[in-house]
Amino acid sequence: MTDQNTSGATPDNADGVTQGETDNSFAGGVGSDLPGGEQPENLQTRSDEAATQAGPDATSADDAGTEHPDTKLAAERLSDLQRIQAEYVNYRNRVERDRAREKEATIGSVVESLIPVLDDIELARQHGDLTEGPMSKIADKIESTLNRFGVARFGEVDEAFDPSVHEALMHVEAEAPEGVDGTFVVQVLQPGYKVGERVVRPARVSVAG
């Protein structure tokens, strides 16, 4: 009986190693092949931690390369507002310019109808008829009222002749004043009138040069 039991146990312990020793040896062999002798579950934990730490940075890098839809929409709206504002400024300037021209044209038409009266006032003043008296006061009031509306009288002796504001009625021989080159005004026969930059009537002059 003793010999049979001994021979029956021989296959399981033929090499003299038990099942528990085999399992421990396998586990130790796997761990010994990893860096620092760490176990696989420890490496997996570290890998998960590293992925968690790198996650936000990787997401930020992806977002940095992609423009947010709201940013593009805001830029388009800003461009539209700037364009509309520029159009409004141009429109307002154009309206103001047109109004100024209409005002000058209206005043100019009134001045044009008063030019004969203004010429008579100028001749009377040159002859000394408006030095005093009620007519002198009336003439002064008429001229001061026109000045308030931007009406200006122009035309001076010895100034350079400018065909845009002067009308030459006579040409005479005369020595040019110092500092004046070319054609110049010798005598103002009738003064000119303008409203702003609009010439109602050019100054009628005699010229030389």
TrEMBL record:
GO terms (BP aspect)? protein folding
Q: Which residues cross the membrane?
A: none
Q: What InterPro entries does the record tag this protein with? A: GrpE, GrpE_CC, GrpE_head
Per the record, where are the segments of Polar residues compositional bias? 1-10
Query: Where located?
Result: Cytoplasm
Any single Gene Ontology cellular-component annotation = cytoplasm
Disulfide bond in keyword set: no
Molecular-function GO term, any one: protein-folding chaperone binding
| Family annotation (Gene3D superfamilies) | 3.90.20.20, Head domain of nucleotide exchange factor GrpE (2.30.22.10)
Q: Does the keyword Cytoplasm apply?
A: yes
Q: What does this protein's UniProt record list under function?
A: Participates actively in the response to hyperosmotic and heat shock by preventing the aggregation of stress-denatured proteins, in association with DnaK and GrpE. It is the nucleotide exchange factor for DnaK and may function as a thermosensor. Unfolded proteins bind initially to DnaJ; upon interaction with the DnaJ-bound protein, DnaK hydrolyzes its bound ATP, resulting in the formation of a stable complex. GrpE releases ADP from DnaK; ATP binding to DnaK triggers the release of the substrate protein, thus completing the reaction cycle.
Similarity remark: Belongs to the GrpE family.
Q: How does it assemble?
A: Homodimer.
The name this protein carries in UniProt is Protein GrpE
Organism encoding this protein: Dermacoccus nishinomiyaensis
Taxonomic placement: Bacteria, Bacillati, Actinomycetota, Actinomycetes, Micrococcales
Per the record, the gene is: grpE
